[in-house]
C-alpha cells in the first residue's frame, strides 16, 4: 500500500459522509458501478471532470493520479498536467504539501507517530520476525532503538524507499522526487491557491483505528517482499508500482491495492474507499464554483469504488486526457 503514502504518514480516515448515490452507511453503492470503471486500456493519469448539463458545460476540473515518492530517474510530468494547472483556479492535494515542510507542524505531530503506552515492536512480532525487520532497517542505516516504538504503519511507509540522498519534501538533493512537492511549486509559480482535502491530523487518525498487531503483520510482509525483490527472487512491490505508474495503468494500480489488502479485513475500505466517498461531494461542490485540479494517489482513481467510477455514477463526465 505504500504508493498511497505521503512521505511520513499513511493515509487516514474520518467518519464517512453520506454521498449521493451511496447508501446511508457510505459503504455499499446503490447502483451498479461496474460500467463506470476505467479499463486497462484507459492508460492516463490525468482525467477531465465536467458536468453534462447545459448550464455547467463550461465548468471543468481535473483529477491527477500521483505517486507520492518516485525515484528521480523515473519521474516524469506531461505537458497536459501543466496545462491543467494553468487552466484551474486552485490545486488540491490529499494534504497541503506545505504542511509537510513546516518544521513546527512536523514537530507537533511527532508524538502521534509513537505507539500508545509501553508497546514496542518486540511486543507485536515473534523474535524471528522482529529480527528480520530489525536487520532490514539496520541495513538502511536506521537503528531499531530509534524506531522501536513507532507505529508499524509509519515504518511500512519507509520500506522500499531510498532516502539516502535527502528528504525530497524538504527540497533536498534526493534520489527520490515527490509529485506533491513538484506540483505545489508549479501551482505557486502560477499563483494558484493550494489546499488539502484532508489534514495531517486527519490522516494520522488511521494509525489508531487499525490494531498494532495488524500493522506489525503488514510491516513484516512488506519487509519480506522488499527483501525478496532486492535479492532478485521476485519483483519488489515498489518497483512493480513504479512500473505501473510509468505505464499510467490506473486499473492495474487499483487491483494491486485490492490484492495487497487481502487478508487484512477492511483495510482497503478504511484506506481508500471511504476516503474516496468523502472526497466526491467536495469535488462536486467545488466543480459548481470554480475549476480545480485534484492531485491524489493514483490508487484512488480506478476500481468500482474509485473516484472515477463514483463521480461518473453521480452523473459527471470523467474522461482521460492523453498527451
UniProtKB/TrEMBL annotation:
Pfam families, A to Z: TraB_PrgY_gumN (PF01963)
Quote the protein name from its UniProt record.
TraB/GumN family protein
Q: Which organism is it from?
A: Neolewinella maritima
